[in-house]
Amino acid sequence: MQRNIETITQTIHKYLERKSLAIEDAPWEIKKSELGGFGVFATRAIEVGELIFKDFPVILGPRAAPTCPLSCVSCYSRRDLRLCGKKCGLLVCSEKCEKSLGHQKECKVVRQWQSKPISEDLSVQLVRVLSPIRSLLLGEEDKSVVKCLKAHKSDQHGFEVDVMKDALALNVKEDEEKFMRFVCSVMDSNAFEVLVGFEDNQASVKGLYPLGSLANHSCCPNTCHVFDDKQHMVVRASKFIPQGSEIFHSYSRLIWSTSARRFHLYRTKHFLCKCQRCEDPTEFGSYIGSILCKVCKTGKVIPTNSLQTDKWQCEVCGSLIKKEEVANITFVLGSALNSFDDDDVAVMLRLLHQKLPNLVPENNQTVVELKYKLIWILVPENNQTVVELKYKLIWILGHQQGFAWNDLSDEYLSLKVNFCRDLLALLELLRLGQCKMRGLLLYELYSCYNEQNNRQTKSGSVSKVHENQMKSVLQEAADILMYDVTAPAEIKRMWSEEVQLKKK
Ligand SMILES: [Zn+2]
Ligand SMILES: [Zn+2]
Ligand SMILES: [Zn+2]
Ligand SMILES: [Zn+2]
């Protein structure tokens, strides 16, 4: 199919209409992007928080990664899984899911392909190659939606089809194989991870969102996307977007350094990002990817060209550092981070505060404790590992077993407050606007304030956090996380109350 702006625009608009997601006076259009290929652009100025579009997955299915827990192919529940009674080899959780229209169709296709029944141990593999199978069941209109998306040509795509033919011995027809390989490649470059279900019965699946796929990536995006309880993707402006600007979202982790993000994007999405943030060796003055100079001990070492990273230099004394040395340090820091379990809180804090007995640390010197050796590494305040450690601790303190709100010491509670504030300041430095992480951190900060207030009320002390300040923190968190199915229950209650008020 010829990929041109008119056909793509028409196909996408019709698709959204079929899914009842068309917005009147939608503020976007599809145009040629300077990045190559197509992109989504603002047809008028868009205010912070404004809805830009909603999208629905044309294909939704289990993820192929072996680390993902299995779930029912119909409702994605992870409980009471059993093989489908018709012996297709897929897993369902109930009679209702087995009889669902969606499953009946795919059940029939798989059984037609089988020369022998699929044994229980092979069923795992069949579940993981289900998305391309589902693409064959799409109607012609939906197939043409998939066809107007971009596929990357690469050998590693379509291993799902190899699994079907080799491991599962399915008799796939030639034209079916061709289309499925194309779909695999489209999904590899464009699918989003979506969480389905609630609390301890959540499954992570992947969805192909047509309009979401057409928006390009930036490590400094101007939108934030969340998924609601019906797997809709809800895309809103995280910053003010001037008329005519390209609309970007991020496929990568926002608190990773440029080399980590670019490597990850290249490996998973097959492109090298050249956005404004990637091009700035200081990453907007955050120095998230840099280390401190071992010669002058105060200067920050940054790449002389952030898109090449083969030469690193101290900003103060000009000393050159070999890229291997930087890579080594980054590796050591990364492995230290990964070596911590959730109950290693004391060790993580010691690392952050450089408080090892009998050693007087120099400026921002961090001790990395690997199992048997201690390594001194000089890092700036916002170094990626420091940031990730703080983020990890935020989700342990107040959440994990042994660190529930009631059990936290006053010291741990105020540390958590500081970490939240540090990361919120970093997100601002990185120009990330009203991004989802900001919403999550604000809610954690609000919860800390709440706990501090409760304690002060009990002890009769008066220095309480101002009620209005708390309210505004909570309100901002709720505004950012609106529609997000994974938002905290308290925030979900706030929206439903808002909706009730509007109805009256
Ligand atoms: Zn089910
Ligand atoms: Zn079946
Ligand atoms: Zn970038
Ligand atoms: Zn130096």
Gap between N and C termini, in Å?
49 Å
Radius of gyration: 25 Å
Low-confidence stretches: 355-363
The helix/strand class is: alpha+beta
Ligands, deduplicated: zinc ion
Count of helical stretches: 18
**Helical amount:** 40-55%
Shape: globular
What is the count of β-strands? 18
**Order of strands across the widest beta sheet?**
1-2-12-9
Mean pLDDT: 89
Short précis:
The protein has 504 residues and is an alpha+beta fold. The chain folds into 4 domains: 90 residues, SET domain (Beta-clip-like); 147 residues, no CATH class; 146 residues, no CATH class; 92 residues, no CATH class.
Describe this structure in words.
This protein has 504 residues and is α+β, with helices and mostly antiparallel strands. The protein folds into four domains: 5-54 and 209-248, Beta-clip-like (Beta Complex); 59-205, no CATH class; 251-396, no CATH class; 413-504, no CATH class. The protein has helices at residues 5-18, 95-99, 101-113, 120-128, 130-136, 140-147, 159-165, 174-190, 210-214, 258-269, 276-279, 323-339, 345-353, 384-396, 410-429, 436-459, 467-480, 489-503, and strands at residues 28-32, 38-42, 51-55, 59-62, 82-83, 91-92, 192-196, 203-208, 216-217, 223-227, 233-237, 246-249, 291-292, 300-303, 311-314, 320-322, 365-369, 374-378. The protein has a four-stranded mixed beta sheet. A four-stranded antiparallel beta sheet has the order 13-14-15-16. The protein has a three-stranded antiparallel beta sheet with strand order 3-11-10. Strand 1 and strand 2 (38-42) form a beta hairpin. The longest helix is centred in the last third of the chain and has 24 residues, at 436-459. The protein is globular. Residues 355-363 have low confidence and may be disordered. Bound molecules: zinc ion (ZN) (4 copies). The site of one zinc ion (ZN) has 6 residues, from helix 3. GO terms for molecular function: N-methyltransferase activity; protein methyltransferase activity; S-adenosylmethionine-dependent methyltransferase activity. InterPro entries: SET_dom (IPR001214), SET_dom_sf (IPR046341), SET_SmydA-8 (IPR053010). Residues 26-252 form the SET domain. It holds the Pfam family SET. This is Protein msta, isoform B-like Protein.
